[in-house]
UniProtKB/TrEMBL annotation:
Residues 282-327 have a biased composition (Low complexity). It comes from the Bacteria. Residues 207-226, 257-281 have a biased composition (Basic and acidic residues). This is Peptidoglycan DD-metalloendopeptidase family protein. The keyword Signal applies.
Amino acid sequence: MKKFGYVTLAAVMALGSIGLGGLGNTAYANEDLRSKIADVQSERGENQELARQKESEVADLKQEMETLSNEINKLEKEEADTADKISSKEDEIAEVEAHIEKLKEEIKELEERIAERDELLKDRAKNMYQSGGEVNYLEVILGAKDFGDLLDRMNALSTIANQDKSILDAHIQDHEDLEAAKTEVEEELNKLEGHLADLETLKADLEKQRAEKDSKRGDLQSKEETLEAELGEIENEDEILAQQEAAFESELAAWEEEQKRLAEEKKRQEEEEKKRQEEAAKAQAEQAAANQESTTQSSSNASSSNSNTSSNSNTSSGSSSSSKSSQPQVKNETTSSEAPQKSTSGFVRPTTGSVTSTYGTRWGKMHHGIDFGKNGRTGDVPIIAAKEGTVSSAGWMNGYGNTVIITHVVDGRTVTTLYGHMERIDVSAGQKVSQSQQIGLMGNTGQSYGAHLHFEVHEGNWNGAKSNSVNPLNYVSR
């Protein structure tokens, strides 16, 4: 009996030690998983705090952008005023140049008249010299044949005298006009030089204003792009952390369910073992009692023997049953992981022309789409919907210029396509479009350097961080 007690105690202690070890491992694994979840949640909290800080920076940047925008508007107004001044100055220069040309024509005419009159005066002087330098008026009068001839001769003399005086007066006036015209030309030329100097100054001011405006716009765009990129990275990281958190929680739930099943299995095995030990102890007690009775009751030996045989058989049967039941029951579980179905894209090329830029890093930053070039073609190049869907946005977008965004549903999944830098938009937001329907024309609007189509594909919704972007060549042909 003592031996049986020791055996029983040892078995119970062994089971107890196994149970405690299992509980220890359970607690450790449970704590480890919860620690991982807590770490992820902590990282998400830090990430969200960083996002809030960035949002605060964005708010500050918007204020700075507004200030810079006001400065740019002021510079644009100054630029416009300077351009107006340049235009006015160019008009003034044109007027002065026209006046100078007119004066030059007048000078030319005066010089020609003066030259002709010089010849006439030279002839008159020559005739006077040949006639002794005087006109004998008395001879002319006395030589008249009659009174009428006398009047004619007197009128002729008067005409000659007046003509000579007029010629001299006109000659003097032309010389004075010539000097005045030349003086005025000099003054106009000096004025022209001043206007030209002012024009150069105004043009220099205009270039300076444009350079300052472009610099401010460049700084503003650089800051905006940097913050947008940082916010995009934060959003993408938060998405990954959220997925990790969900995965850990799923793993924890599955693990706890498994631990519950194992605990129930262990409890069942302990109950079976306890029952087996009780049956074995009972059999041993019955055997001991039978042995004591055999010494005084010889007539019951055969009965006792049969009883012992039956008891041993039961014990053996019980042991076998117990041993069989004590084997760990392995539960066959079949888990089927259904691979995502990969169907043909069903998308068509959104335009004609070669691919001039692919998806990936370009000029030190991510290029989230592919570019189709106009390749020197003239005329309109149509852009079509790559697949049927609903236009979610149609209008101007910063950087993209005229842009259309279309939402498609493919095998129950949301896929979004974006078409940027369009010259013209032919659809509107909320409109249903069919595959290959024209949605606009290829252009060069927004931040673009030459006519082309910028085409993006996003598996899910489009967002500013472009975190859902994928290589469009997975959907359309090159």
